[in-house]
Specification:
It is a single chain. By secondary structure, the protein is of the alpha+beta class. The chain folds into two domains: 10-45; 48-182, Nucleoside Triphosphate Pyrophosphohydrolase (Alpha-Beta Complex), CATH 3.90.79. The protein contains three helices and ten strands. Strands 7-4-9-8 form a four-stranded mixed sheet, with helices on both faces. Strands 1-2-3 form a three-stranded antiparallel sheet, with no helix packed on it. A three-stranded antiparallel sheet has the order 6-5-10. Strand 2 and strand 3 form a beta hairpin. The mean pLDDT is 94.
């Protein structure tokens, strides 16, 4: 079995089809791997996706709830946001947690990194776990109307299994934490 690791795609041209402060939609004219001409659309994210699993001493997870405009439904998820590419990822995660929930301090560690939808976007996420946090005042952005609730870790995993939590970053972070626990590392 051979592995193809070189790029079989050839970009002929690229143009920005749309842009705003968060994303660019790129239209590429390409030569496909089969040698035929084609097109490819890429959603380029201008920020790193950041998420954190806040845990308390009772093994509960702090979830935030908000209405997600793109999906047209309410979503319970871990605190998430964006970080500049030149910003230290943990600093961005700490900032997002404080903004959305008011919680600060504590002990932090990276859980995992992932590509969120690599067939159409270049969005990358870095996910953290944090414990020993202290409550403070939240200062969410004007686009965020958030609720918070602490939920037992096992119940959060059950919510994922029941399809009540469908946010990819939340599922990735919590399943990574569950895998670490199953292996005796978390």
């Amino acid at each position: 079995m051979s592995t193809i690791e070189s790029n079989p795609w050839q970009r002929v041209s690229r143009r920005v089809a749309y842009e705003n402060p968060w994303i660019e939609i790129l239209h590429d004219d390409v030569v496909r791997p089969d040698g035929q001409p084609g097109i490819y659309g890429v959603v380029h994210f201008r920020h790193l996706a950041i998420g954190v699993v806040p845990l308390d001493a009772s093994d509960r997870v702090l979830l935030v709830g908000q209405f997600r405009y793109t999906m047209n439904h309410y979503s319970w998820e871990i605190p998430e946001g964006g970080g500049d590419f030149d910003e230290f990822p943990e600093a961005a995660a700490r900032r997002e947690l404080a903004e959305e929930t008011g919680y600060v301090g504590g002990e932090w560690r990276e859980l995992c990194r992932a590509e969120l939808s690599n067939s159409v976007s270049d969005e990358v996420t870095i996910l953290f776990a944090a414990s020993g946090l202290e409550a403070g005042p939240a200062s969410p952005e004007g686009t965020e109307q958030l609720q918070m609730r602490w939920v037992a870790f096992d119940e959060v995993m059950a919510m994922i299994a029941r399809g009540e939590i469908v946010d990819a970053m939340t599922i990735l972070a919590l399943q990574q934490l569950a895998l670490e626990r199953a292996a005796g590392r978390g």
